[in-house]
User: What shape does this take?
Amino acid sequence: MNGLVSIALATFNGKKYLRDQLDSIYNQTYKNIEVIVSDDASSDETIELLNEYKSKYGLKYYINDKNYGLISNFQKAIEHCNGDYIALAD
Assistant: This one.
């Protein structure tokens, strides 16, 4: 497999578990990936963590202006994916 794989994540106040999830994704052996995160207006430190992974790995994230809920938040993440394949990570 050679195609770009987009990993779509939807976050909302997920700082507690997000580091483990992102580390797991970035530690995979297949490296032709992009990680796209749609954040549903988190009020915890999720954005600071996403900034860290943006700097380290090039993660792309988008912040919603309000809370849209799980399904719409995933849809927003998918809209930003550029890969030949899309994987949802939850």
Summary: The helical segments are 15-26, 46-57, 70-79. The chain has a mean pLDDT of 96. The longest strand covers residues 5-11.
